[in-house]
Design goal:
Layout (H helix, E strand, L loop, with lengths): L9 E3 L2 E4 L2 E4 L1 H13 L1 E5 L8 E4 L6 E5 L12 E5 L3 H7 L3 H14 L7 H7 L1
Antiparallel strand pairs: 1-7, 2-3, 4-5, 5-6, 6-7
């Protein structure tokens, strides 16, 4: 897979039908690879219900926002990754850390008697 290039501003995924099955196209696969292997997860936008996530490219320090802009589709549809020009201070003000978000969701689910499996528990089960 290819890392983000300096001139890139946005990657938009789409779902395609292959052998009778719906799957993500190449930009979907690249977005998934970037957010899981390359970019640093910086924060979660609580106002979006946790759907929008902020990442930073360690190569150049640029911020990237992961969204699911097709709200009419299941799960918000395929992902989009867009460069956002914000300062470090703005990032801290608008986004909560992934750890804070996980604690918030754990409390939310516990208060409703919904079993929450932490990322540590999930790793142990693998």
């Amino acid at each position: 897979m290819k890392k983000l290039e300096p001139g890139e501003e946005e990657l938009v995924g789409d779902w395609i039908l292959v052998d009778g099955k719906v799957r993500g196209n190449e930009p979907c696969e690249r977005i998934h690879w970037l957010v899981s292997e390359v970019l640093q997860h910086i924060g979660v936008d609580a106002a979006s219900g946790g759907w929008d996530k902020l990442y930073r490219d360690p190569a150049d320090g640029r911020y990237w926002l992961l969204t699911y802009p097709r709200s009419e589709m299941q799960g918000g549809g395929p992902p989009a990754l867009k460069h956002v020009a914000i300062t470090d201070q703005e990032a801290k003000e608008k986004f909560v850390s992934p750890e804070e978000w996980e604690k918030h969701m754990e409390k939310f689910m516990r208060d409703r008697n919904i079993r929450f499996i932490s990322s540590e528990e999930a790793e142990e089960k693998k």
